[in-house]
Structures are given as structure tokens and as C-alpha cells.
Amino acid sequence: MKILHCCLAAFYIDNFGYQENILPKMHKLLGHDVTILASTETYIGSKLGYTSPGEYINENGIPVKRIPYSRFIPSVLVRKLRLYEGIGAFLKKVNPDIIFLHDVQFLSIVEIVRFAQRNPNVKIYADGHTDFGNSAKNWVSRNILHKVIYKWCAKMIEPYVSKFWGVTPLRVDFFIDVYGINKEKVDLLVLGLDDSELDITNKAFVREKVRTKHGLGEKFVFISGGKIDRRKNIHLLLEAFSDKAFDDYHLILFGSITDEMRVEIEKHLGQSNITYLKWLEPKQVSEYFMAADFGVFPGTHSVLWEQAVGVGLPAIFCKWDGVTHVDVGGNCVFIESISAEKIGKTMHEIVMDSNRFASLRKNAEEKGPKVFSYTEIAKKSIDMN
């Protein structure tokens, strides 16, 4: 089948491990003819920016078409409303059997509606990455953008969508409570682990390779990372790990540090029991997860949570309402009211209780990969299961 992935509600960044990167890749590996239609919003260096419209083949051999914003509206406004030129003509050219919308918050969704009206056999699916933790934080965003403009977008496309997928339970609720989508049309489609290039059964070899490279031997290794901003609470993790109680343990940290956090983070990176790796490719992240003993994610949710669980890594997570789906049955520990003291205490309790650690590791390794395999997620996303 011909599948068109539309990344028009936000950025599309090549060579990343976001869902809009992995789902098209997995659909292609499943034998489908895949194309991506995207905005010009992307990463320029390490910051969000805008590239030029154009066409190219991405790192997974998938054609990508980046289309321009409408020229007749000021750029500040058009990038919020997300009005584009050329969607209708491109849809007609590709003539997809399936359209997968990565979020629905773009006014040019009317072009998708028109295509669906003219082509009643096309199947449309839409996912949602929006919740009150990452969006709708001020009055204008909540009451104008989301409850009026973006709700209108969602309701416009609703009659033609087979399934709205929230990627966390909280985002399922956002579709229903904020956009007013019929709950019978909404379900959970978890983020996961790209298992196309990673053999989890080869974990022992990967673990030894990574540990040998960094001289870690059989030390107990914690790992954390991602975009290191204040809300991720990595500064509190580092403060906790500076305690002498952790001198015999090791922490691997990776990811880009935001400017506001640089001084606060870098003052800890000289510790001999901390390895900082800067940015890692998604496959490298999985390999380092396989080499570690325990993940620690004391801040806001990111796709790394599901990736860690998908590899079979037990972990500590900050507890957020609607984001407890990473608990697949005794594989993780949740912390409420995050502080450096509480993070340190939880980590220390785990390394000191070998039976508890063994149970957490066993549950993680046996259950996590089954739930968070992107091969299975990709099939579910277009009702192939």
C-alpha cells in the first residue's frame, strides 16, 4: 500500500529517533510504498529553525517533500496556524491508500479533508503528542490555540479518521477532553524502540563492548540523558550522585545541555565516576541502555522512557499522571515530589537490595521488549494486527 506520513503540525528532523522518523521507516520495512510530506521546520545545528522547501531521499531511502508556508500571511502567524502551499497537488500526485497524520494542529488540514471527500477509500490515522505538560500552558495557548483553532482542525478531520492515537494515556485524554474527539475513535499507541537494527538477544556482547570502551568492568552503572533542560531534573540527579555513597558506582550521561543549565551541569562532569557522552544517535542510545544496569529519568517525559523499557532496562521515573504506561509489571520505580535527596535515596535502596534489583531487572527484560517493539507498533498504527 502507498502510505503518506504528514508531518505538518510541527517539525520534522532528519536522522532523529522520533516517532515521525521511525514509523515511516518501519512501514517501509514492512513492504509499503512510503512518502513523507513535511514542514520546513527542523533542527539547524542544535536549535529549531527552518530549512528551504524541496524534495530529497532521507536516510531510510524514503522520499521527503518539504513544502513552503503560505506567502500571504506574516511568518510569525502562519507558522502557528500552519498554513501551507501545494498540499492538494501533492496529495493528488501521490494518491495514497493511507494517510498518517503526525498531530492534527494545522489549518491546512482542510486539504486532507478535501482529498478524503474526493477519495472515500483512503484510510486516515492521526496520532497526538500534545498534553498539558508540553502545551497549552498559558491562557492564549490553552483557550485560543487549542480549545478553538486546533480543536477546529481535529473536528474537521474527525469524520474521516479511522483512529486517533494518543502516544501516552495523557495524550489520549487530551484528544477527548480538549479537542472533543469521540472516545470510541481514540486509543493508545505507545512510543517504542526501533528494533530493526538492534538484536536484543545480543545484549551480552554489546554490554561488554561498551563497558570495555569506558573501562567500567562490572561496576553498577546508572544511565540518563536526552535534552538536558531544567525540567528534566538532571541537575538534581548529578547533585545526588555527588554523594560519597555513590563513589563505587558509575553514571553515564548523554544529551545536549541547554544554555541555561550549562554551568549547573558542567560543574559535576569532572567527577571520575561520571561519563558524559554529549549527543548519541538512537541506535547508540539503545546500546548504552543495554550496557547499563539502571535508568534514571527524574524529570518530564521523553521518548527515551519507552526506548529504555523497550531495551529491557529497569528504571526510575518521575511520576506523572497519565504517563505510567511505562510500568509493564514491576520493571520500574516511580518517584513523586522530586528532590536530589529523594533521587539519591531511591538509587541507593536499589543497589543495596539485590533481590529487589534482580526482580526489577527480570521483569524489565522479559516484559519491556514485547510491549515497546516498533515493528509491532507500526503494524498496529495502520490496523495491520
TrEMBL record:
InterPro entries: Glyco_trans_1 (IPR001296), Glycosyltransferase_grp1 (IPR050194). One of its GO terms (molecular function) is glycosyltransferase activity. SUPFAM superfamilies: UDP-Glycosyltransferase/glycogen phosphorylase. Residues 207-366 form the Glycosyl transferase family domain. Gene3D superfamilies: Glycogen Phosphorylase B (3.40.50.2000). PANTHER family: SULFOQUINOVOSYL TRANSFERASE SQD2. This is Glycosyltransferase. It comes from Mariniradius saccharolyticus AK6.
